[in-house]
Automatic annotation (TrEMBL):
Residue ranges of domain BTB in the record: 21-89
Keywords: Actin-binding, Kelch repeat, Repeat
Lineage of source species: Eukaryota, Metazoa, Ecdysozoa, Arthropoda, Chelicerata
Protein name: Kelch-like protein 12
InterPro entries: BACK, BTB/POZ_dom, Kelch-typ_b-propeller, Kelch_1, SKP1/BTB/POZ_sf
Signal peptide per UniProt: none
Top-level division of the source organism's lineage: Eukaryota
Length: 550
């Protein structure tokens, strides 16, 4: 980290360096660009060889570089001085090729970072081609994934119409092409062929082999085709071979609803599938909610104070619900069979009080009502399992400093709470969730975090995961891609940490995933209802744009 004094003198020092050059880089156009040989050698093995190994041997201070434009080379020279560079859509391809060729690892990383956050339907094809040429696996995966997700948008782009046959065939093989119908893929094939019909028509059978339509559907397409080389060629063929794989779009096994709450804004989006990389926006609300909950159908409930809203994922409808009966904080909120439950919590005025009371919202009568209260006061999370509600409650005890923590189970059919065995080793509990038909509790004892599981059938507690050193102000846990994640939920933590469970190494690992590194502003919910996922998958691109409440 640069000192303040260095920062103050940086312009002067940079100006001074320009008068101390001791070498040159010669580009194809004959330009001699002055450089500091030691700086270039430090950032690049290529220049280390040119200036140190070969340069000293032959007594030369000039390095000839072919295939790199002089203006790009100057950007690279400037980058070697202070590791600063302005990357744009216009120079990204030249920069990434040149930095890879010149073995400048840090610049390659910056280029990859730019690609990841600046991919668009206009540049993704060309960037994908570049990544294949560079044999950069991670970059290729990202660009290919972007193409899969945005395929329907990019088929009319010039970059798509000029793509090579091999790349097009590879794209069309994907099960994950995000299209509203298989017919979109046929239109893409037809558009690509017509650009250079005389040459490309010979490839049509190989491309049709990636089309997942039966013979009759292909014949129906032929009847609608305008007269031309494509129609004539297909009609002259004896047999049109297509693919018998399931038609696209193929609904994902699961998706995630992501609710982001920061400042006075709540943004809700849904992922395309189980990967947390590309999302569709659902709605924005100009407020910061105190609690968020979803049901198995992806319907979302948001509360702030006594105010409450519901969002229907299928109908894309956001509406206000009647206000809660009382103002409370730190409560549990869950949804069972369409009924919304507000459980426990605290009242801070006129005096602090932990609550046992429970409110339930009936979506048919659209009214709140009081139901059976908990055995003991509760504040914090709640969860559901097989149509029943589980919540943590706490009973004060003279021999226990922090009281005794219990699990209570609610049966909606009987409107009754049942007290489960208390949690034996925890001082404080932070999160409550379900996994593999068990209740999972994240809590602390002494200076360590524990994940414990409760078997509702046997009514037995188990310590399920190795402990994690307590480095949090307010830790929370959730499950992502079948793995446990523990993150910092406090806004006051300066350097929030996130850990995920490595099932191979059997230990907690600090995550490097940019999304997971700062989860404190997010609430994440998994949807596995196949009927809902199918209906979302069948929405056209136009419908998504039309329905968005952003």
């Amino acid at each position: 980290m640069k000192s303040e004094k260095f920062k103050e003198n940086e312009p002067f020092q940079r100006n001074l360096l320009q008068h101390l050059y001791d070498g040159f880089i010669q580009t194809d156009d004959g330009q001699l660009l002055p450089v500091h040989r030691i700086l270039m050698s430090l950032v690049s093995p290529f220049f280390h060889t040119a200036f140190v190994t070969e340069g000293l041997k032959h007594g030369s201070n000039i390095c000839k570089v072919t295939g790199v434009k002089s203006e790009i080379m100057q950007l690279i020279i400037d980058f070697a001085m202070d590791e600063k560079i302005i990357i744009t859509d216009e120079n990204i391809q030249d920069l990434i090729f040149s930095s890879d060729y010149l073995e400048i690892k840090k610049l390659v990383e910056k280029c990859c970072y730019y690609v990841k956050f600046n991919s668009s339907v206009k540049n993704c094809i060309s960037l994908y081609q570049s990544s294949l040429s560079l044999e950069h696996l991670e970059l290729s995966k990202h660009c290919y994934r972007f193409i899969e997700i945005h395929f329907e948008k990019l088929v009319n782009q010039n970059s798509f119409l000029s793509v090579t046959f091999d790349i097009l065939e590879h794209i069309l093989q994907s099960d994950s092409l995000n299209v509203s119908s298989e017919g979109i893929i046929w239109e893409a094939i037809n558009s690509w062929i017509k650009v250079e019909a005389e040459i490309r028509i010979k490839k049509i059978h190989q491309l049709l082999n990636q089309l997942r339509l039966n013979q009759q559907e292909v014949l129906n397409i032929l009847e609608k085709l305008e007269t031309g080389i494509v129609r004539d060629y297909l009609l002259s063929s004896k047999k049109l071979l297509t693919n018998n794989k399931p038609k696209r779009p193929i609904s994902p096994r699961k998706s995630y609803i992501i609710v982001r709450c920061k400042a006075n804004k709540c943004t809700c989006s849904i992922t395309y599938d189980e990967k947390i990389d590309f999302v569709r926006n659902l709605f924005n609300i100009p407020l910061r909610p105190t609690s968020v909950a979803t049901d198995s159908k992806g319907n979302i409930f948001v509360t702030q104070g006594v105010r409450c809203w519901s969002y229907c994922l299928e109908q894309n409808r956001l509406e206000a619900l009647p206000d809660l009966e009382i103002f409370r904080e730190d409560y549990g909120m869950v949804v069972v069979d369409g009924f919304l439950y507000i459980i426990g919590g605290v009242i801070r005025r006129p005096s602090y009080m932990t609550l046992r009371t429970v409110e339930r919202f009936n979506p048919i009568t659209r009214q709140w009502s009081w139901i059976q209260s908990l055995h003991f006061p509760s504040k914090g999370p709640a969860t559901t399992l097989k149509g029943e509600i589980y919540v943590l409650s706490q009973r004060l005890h003279p021999q226990e400093k922090d009281g005794i923590i219990y699990i209570e189970r609610y049966n909606p059919s009987f409107n009754s709470w049942t007290l489960m065995p208390h949690i034996p080793i925890l001082e404080i509990s932070f999160s409550l969730l379900t996994h593999n038909d068990r209740i999972v509790v994240l809590g602390r004892r002494s200076n360590e975090l524990f994940l414990l599981t409760f078997d509702p059938k046997r009514k037995v507690w188990y310590t399920w995961r190795k402990t994690l050193r307590y480095v949090f102000l307010n830790p929370k846990a959730f499950i992502m891609r079948c793995s446990f994640v523990i993150y910092e939920a406090s806004n006051e933590a300066e350097n929030p940490k996130t850990f995920s469970w490595d099932s191979v190494q059997k230990k907690w690992m600090e995550t490097t995933d940019p999304f997971l590194q700062n989860l404190r502003h997010y609430s994440i919910f998994c949807i596995e209802n196949q009927r809902i996922l199918r209906s979302l998958c069948d929405r056209s691109l136009y419908e998504w744009k039309k329905l968005s409440l952003a």
